[in-house]
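User: Please run a holo structure prediction.
Assistant: Happy to. Please share the sequence and the ligand.
User: Here you go; the ligand is LQZ7MJT6.
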Amino acid sequence: MASVIPASNSSMRSDRNTYVGKRFVHVKNPYLDSMDEDILHHLDLGTKTHNLPAMFGDVKFVCVGGSPNRMKAFALFMHKELGLEEAEEDIKDICAGTDRYCMYKTGPVLTISHGMGIPSISITLHELIKHARCCDVTIIRIGTSGGIGIAPGTVIITDIAVDSFFKPRFEQVILDNIVTRSTELHKELSEELFNCSKEIPTFRTLIGHTMCTYDFYEGQGRLDGALCSFSREKKLHYLKRAYKAGVRNIEMESTVSAAMCGRCGLTPAVVCVTLLDRLHCDQINLPHDVLVEYQQRPQLLISNFIRWRLGLCD
Ligand SMILES: O=P(O)(O)O[C@@H]1C[C@H](O)[C@@H](CO)O1
Ligand SMILES: O=c1cc[nH]c(=O)[nH]1
């Protein structure tokens, strides 16, 4: 791990929860304060080697998504949209010492890739949140998903993240207990995002429930995995029940993201484009250029939202 500040520097050990009158990021772990050093292994950062409060203290928006290339493209796009002076070549991957995740900072926007699935994003969020000394942070997952009963290319702003039983909960196994946490998202933020989407006439945006699964194949009722233990009829029956329960898309990170961020004082949102209609097919067979354009849709919406929040819109 690259050392950027002297190991003896103690100025970074600022007290937790020091912001008054603001919604600050807070951690719920009494053990962290007694640690002499904390190595954020998967981000290749650490409390003795990096001045984390100085690096991230001014962050107001955290944008996360699965793929490193997509998130790098988003960071470069935000850099342009915010009209920042720094040369594009100087925007470096903060986590370059590891190939697990990538991270870029452009003004108040931190962009991070989280890999695929609940365990992967959960590790990212633990390491991201536990030494964050920021306040009033909005965290938005910008992802892809499978739609239910809607045209591919539609962008869904999640109002409620639900599990495979259509329940708004995230079940975390802790030791040998199942701990259930709420997956409530921020209603006003979803509405604010939806209002921003009205300025973009080139694609459709909806608010709906998002189902989060532990798997892409059997877990999402696909018939094309290495294993399949149900019939086409059962699959369609399940997806139609999901639709009736308000689910409009399926992905793999929203419940844990809502549960963790909500508990730690970040305001979470989830905005995903749909790549297919699961009532019609299981395979994603879009031409490459269409896939790329679809993936840019949530990015465009979030860029508009951030510029609007920062007072940069006309
Ligand atoms: O952010 P991405 O596009 O990676 O999100 C969805 C959910 C899974 O991580 C992945 C499955 O293809 O795409
Ligand atoms: O069908 C899909 C497409 C993208 N991501 C998912 O999790 N499911």
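Residues 1-20 have pLDDT under 50 and may be disordered.
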